[in-house]
Specification:
One of its GO terms (molecular function) is DNA binding. The protein has 274 residues and is of the alpha/beta class. It is 33% helix and 20% strand. The radius of gyration is 19 Å and the shape is globular. The structure holds adenosine-5'-triphosphate.
């Protein structure tokens, strides 16, 4: 008889991931896994409605939720895209610009405080051995806060705060993951786009909008998300700083998968003090 079964009254041991581990996004055209090193980076995802941004985001959120060294801050204007993760998030902001601004300002203060601490101990960045949790801030959909709800002043403030977090957050352990279904110059100005180390363009209707996500000139070189067929949901061009866009298909997590992952993340976050 096997002796390695767990008595039912004993908690099942769980172990978590780290945000310093590569994050699995999907597979490329040759069938190789697409994993990204998100630590010290930010990622922007864009594409037309229904092109697969939220499915891709869920992979990143799933990884972050499984991490015992990560805080999850979710900003979801539609509430339901990231809503399944709400119970394991540390902060969840719905369609409320005041709450969005308040939380971003809080995050900015955390970042500034961390830089003061780094400066005090003469260090450049937080590392895995520091007793500091990385904060992953996921914003879906960025245009909802920057162009749809609130006053113009509030929208501009939201963009200013996001820009500052994307520009300065990385070394302080603040990672921004942002998605938009409106890849236009007013929503994603070049100065903001260029701060994202990873950019992923899902299907776009124009070469201009594909370039707004990936960077100017890629469409002319044949790298355009307009080439992705409308029925190819979940396929995108992933660009890593300094590289070539890589065609990939994101991994798909069904709602049932997400429920199971949320349960697991819940167990992790309540049994492992972090
Ligand atoms: N990687 C994938 N594998 C299989 N199906 C996918 C994949 N990505 C997307 N889909 C399908 O496409 C649908 C739309 O995807 P998703 O919700 O991610 O789009 P979106 O770009 O976030 O849309 P919106 O901008 O309207 O929020 C999904 O519900 C799913 O059926």
């Amino acid at each position: 008889m096997s002796t390695d079964t767990q008595p039912l009254d004993k908690p099942v041991p769980v172990s978590g991931l780290s945000i310093y581990d590569p994050v699995h996004l999907g597979i490329d055209e040759r069938g190789y896994g697409v994993d990204i090193e998100l630590i010290y980076r930010n990622i922007l995802l864009g594409g037309e409605p229904g092109s697969g941004k939220s499915v891709a985001l869920n992979n990143i959120v799933a990884h972050a939720a499984m991490c015992t060294d990560t805080r999850l801050w979710l900003f979801d204007g539609k509430q339901v895209e990231l809503g399944l993760w709400k119970s394991v998030s540390d902060v969840f902001v719905g369609p409320d610009i005041d709450a969005g601004l308040q939380r971003l300002q809080e995050l900015q203060r955390v970042m500034d405080w961390r830089y003061d601490e780094l400066d005090r101990v003469r260090r450049r960045k937080v590392t895995q051995t520091d007793p500091v949790d990385v904060i992953v801030a996921v914003i879906d959909e960025i245009a909802y806060y920057s162009a749809t709800i609130g006053s113009k002043e509030q929208q501009e403030k939201f963009v200013r705060l996001v820009r500052d977090l994307v520009a300065r957050g990385r070394a302080a352990g603040v990672i921004v993951v942002a998605a938009t279904q409106r890849p236009s110059a007013d929503i994603i100005p070049t100065s903001l786009r260029d701060l994202f180390g990873f950019r992923c363009a899902f299907r776009c209707t124009t070469e201009a909008s594909s370039d707004i996500i990936l960077g100017h000139g890629w469409a002319k070189q044949g790298q355009s998300a307009t080439h992705i067929a409308p029925e190819d949901r979940g396929i995108g061009l992933l660009l890593a700083e300094g590289g070539m866009p890589r065609r990939m298909k994101s991994a798909y997590l069904s709602d049932a998968d997400i429920y199971a992952l949320v349960d697991y993340a819940h167990q992790l976050r309540t049994t492992i003090a972090y």
